[in-house]
Amino acid sequence: MIGHRAFVNSGVEKAELPKSLTTIWCCAFGNCTALKEVFIPRKLANYKTSTSFITHTDAFGNCTNLKTVTFEKGTTSIVSQLFAQCNGLESIVIPDTVTTIGHNAFGSCVNLKNVTFSKNLKTIEHEAFVNSGIEKAELPKTLTSYSPCFRKEKGAHGLEERGVYRIHQFEKQEMIVVCRPEESPMWFDKLWQNTVDLFRSLDIPVRTLECCSGDLADLKVKSLDVEAWSPRQKKYFEVGSCSNLGDAQARRLKIRVNGKDGKKYLAHTLNNTVVAPPRMLIAFLENNLNADGSVSIPKALQPYMGGMTKIEKKHA
Fold it and tell me: Residue 131: which residues within 8 A CB-CB, separation 6 or more?
């Protein structure tokens, strides 16, 4: 273990941390302006206990001359806040073994221009690259996130109060795009079309409903809901939502684009709830239900169902 402020303001130029190291306390190398090179062992980078968010906070914060960070082979995740406010860092290579980058891992690295992402990267947690610059040539950045959601419902909703239509906890698959301002309208149309195509591939009739300005939530420039047909309710119900946030979210998170001649400007961000499984399941069952009680399997799913074309009740 390396303790709190162990090397703060020191003249250390190179920190090759031992491979057995699992804990480094906050500000251990804080304000080490002489530090230029760091080797991070995988046990430290992968550290995921309940205290990791506190233990590693700003471990290398304000190392203004840190240029090189090397991760040990076999690293699978980069813990939260490990290099937050490491202003001297300009480029970094994420090993191909890394699947997760933690919350604010490189936050406030204002000069971070080049990031080579892992081919196996699956998750970038909230604010992983907040307050950092992105090269124009690297845009767009297209990401996906599988997230749990919690909702406190008020009042009675009749038949919908029970079952999976209106529940307090559910999961959803999000699509996120960070792009150039001039490209955000194109990405908005592409994102909501992904949701429409997904549901129609499952033989579910859908329609789109663009929200009027009075219904737009904070930060949103444009928003569109995707609704699926419910034969039971005899009406459409929301199954997805797509939003163009313009530069509002990027302004809050300080996500900037490094343009020509060193000029920086705000990126545009978009998000799309491509599918929320509970409501998708309702739409799937209702629209593929047959009179005999069986459920037809759309062609798009048949390869994943062993060639089955129907789900039928097994008789004893």
Answer: 107, 108, 109, 110, 253, 254, 255
H helix or E strand, kind and range, residue 222: strand 222-230
Catalytic residue among 20, 151, 182, 213: 151
11-18 LR contacts (CB < 8 Å, sep 24+): 13/37, 14/38, 15/39, 17/41, 17/44
From the list 108, 118, 241, 243, the catalytic residue is 241
DSSP state of 7: T
Q: Is the Cα dihedral 236, 238, 239, 242 positive or negative?
A: positive
Query: What's the confidence (pLDDT) of residue 51?
Result: 36
Under the banding of pLDDT at 50, 70 and 90, the label for residue 122 is low
Q: Is 238 a catalytic residue?
A: yes
Which of these is catalytic: 162, 238, 252, 312? 238
Integer angstrom CA distances of residue 315 from 124, 163, 256, 291, 312: 47, 25, 61, 17, 9
The Cα–Cα gap between 128 and 41 comes to: 20
Is 279 a catalytic site residue?
A: yes
- The active-site residue out of 166, 180, 200, 251 is 166
Confidence of residue 53 (pLDDT cuts 50, 70, 90): very low
Nearest to 218 by CA among 245, 193, 239: 245
**Is 241 an active-site residue?**
yes
Query: Is 243 part of the annotated catalytic residue set?
Result: no
Is 256 noted as a catalytic residue in this protein?
Answer: no
Retrieve residue 216's tokens. Answer: 């737009």
